[in-house]
Amino acid sequence: MQKRILVVDDDDMNLARTQIILEEDYEVVLAESGIRALSILKSQKIDLVLLDIDMPLMNGMETFERMKEFAADIPVIFLTASGEVEDVVGALLLGAADYLKKPYPPQELLKRVAQEFEKK
Question: Looking at the chain, which terminus has fewer C-beta neighbours within 10 angstroms, N or C?
């Protein structure tokens, strides 16, 4: 059975690009907001979350904190365009599994996702 990855990003191009990279090896579920992501996490089995930090309404950090209330066992890899040290450090301190700076090479995304699944 394929692993299911939830990709959360407010940019349609980023969602499409990430889906194309992952869909050969994984089942990909897309969410365009943190609010939608939380709804999906409550109703579907998800094995890993790729979460954008900078989103309107509810950013990735807030989404991650709310997610931990009911889905703390699901690993999260943060995706960030900013590369701000405090964003990355904050995400890792909150318990994120990893982070990737956008734009990332497709092979790097696949490698990080595979490494995360190997931990289990």
Answer: N
Bridge pairing between strands 76-80 and 48-52: parallel
Distance separating alpha carbons of residues 31 and 39, to the nearest angstrom = 9
State both tokens at 66.
């709310």
Given this model, what pLDDT does residue 43 score?
Answer: 97
Whether the per-residue pLDDT at 88 is higher than 90: the answer is: no
Does residue 77 contact residue 106 with C-beta atoms inside 8 Å?
Answer: no
Cβ atoms of 21 and 50 closer than 8 Å: no
In whole angstroms, what is the distance from residue 52 CA to residue 58 CA?
Answer: 11
The two tokens of residue 7 are 């990709």
Whole-model pTM: value is 0.94
DSSP 6: E
